[in-house]
Amino acid sequence: QVQLVESGGGLVQAGGSLRLSCTASGRTFSSYLMGWFRQAPGKERLFVAGISWSDGKTYYADSVKGRFTISRDNAKNTVYLQMNSLRPEDTAVYFCHTDGYWGQGTQVTVSS
Description:
By secondary structure, the protein is mainly beta. The chain has strands at 3-7, 10-13, 18-25, 33-39, 46-52, 58-60, 68-73, 78-83, 92-98, 101-102, 106-111. Strands 2, 4, 5, 6, 9, 10 and 11 form a seven-stranded mixed beta sheet that branches. A four-stranded antiparallel beta sheet has the order 1-3-8-7, with no helix packed on it. Strand 9 (92-98) and strand 10 form a beta hairpin. The protein is globular, with a radius of gyration of 13 Å. The model has no long low-confidence stretch (mean pLDDT 94).
């Protein structure tokens, strides 16, 4: 059974940083794309960033380019999302996703 477990969320002031982690288990993911999505209260879940397990190619939403960095550690089956220069509008539950599977989400709250 595939499991995705996120961690690293929390409360931070505007301008601060957080690093999220997502560890995958259950099978080998080397041929898939891992993505981070976020969902603010009352809003739809939106793509934030993605990375290819195989070649490390990265993708970002325009709203986070230059502030967020996605990376991976294939040996640990873990993907990270380094979030810098956080803004109140980044407040949301952040989810990782791969091949149709979702993690449980981790809350990120940015105070002004």
